Amino acid sequence: MLLVKEGQLSELAELFERYQVKLYNFFLRLTMDEALSEDLTQNLFYRVIRYRESFQPAAGSFKSWVYRMARNVHVDHFRQEQKVPGRAGTQDRAGGILGEAIERDAGRDPRDAGRDSGYQEDQYERLDAAMAQLSPTQREILVLSRYQGLKYEEISKIKEISVPAIKVQVYRALRQLRNLYFKQT
């Protein structure tokens, strides 16, 4: 990113290859809309180029910086559209949108969801439904911590709140997700 910041925009290709799928899945889990997630990912990389001067390695890693920017892209989109993020999703494939994103992260064919993993298709659908019922803040904290695998320190920089506050938010979101998931049985 330091080379991109210096004007060598061709170096962004490596960052794009490394982060594009992860960021797409981040947006997909928040919006549950494939086309919108592609658009938001594209908008994010446009912003990376546009605001490359704001990257400060001393303030944190590129990963923290790009996820903070991704959060802003997501929030800005829904402010413009005046929608509640992530409430409308489609589950037209086995395993639902969230199940597909999980399998895509693992590098497996999404159509194989539930076959080798020990999870059944209805479990993915229940997880999708439970995640959709969480507040946008709770969904975001779980996506960052559990699905994107970010450390609490990284999330703290992204959300600009303390690590203990992140831990509390994750705990509460997991408890709420567990309640919603098992309430469906």
Verbal overview:
This protein has 185 residues and is mainly α. It folds into 3 domains: 1-88, RNA polymerase sigma factor, region 2, helix turn helix motif (Rna Polymerase Sigma Factor, Chain: A); 90-122, no CATH class; 134-185, Orthogonal Bundle (Arc Repressor Mutant, subunit A), CATH 1.10.10.10. Helix content is 68%, strand content 0%. It has 9 helices and no strands. The protein has helices at residues 2-5, 12-31, 34-50, 62-81, 96-105, 121-133, 136-147, 152-159, 163-183. The model is unreliable at 84-116 (pLDDT under 50).
Radius of gyration: 17 Å
Query: What would the CATH topology of the largest domain be?
Result: Rna Polymerase Sigma Factor, Chain: A
Question: What's the level 1 CATH class of the largest domain?
Answer: Mainly Alpha
CATH superfamily of the largest domain: RNA polymerase sigma factor, region 2, helix turn helix motif
Low-confidence stretches: 84-116
Query: What is the straight-line distance between the termini?
Result: 47 Å
Q: Number of folding domains?
A: 3
CATH architecture of the largest domain: Orthogonal Bundle
Output the structural class: mainly alpha
Overall outline: globular
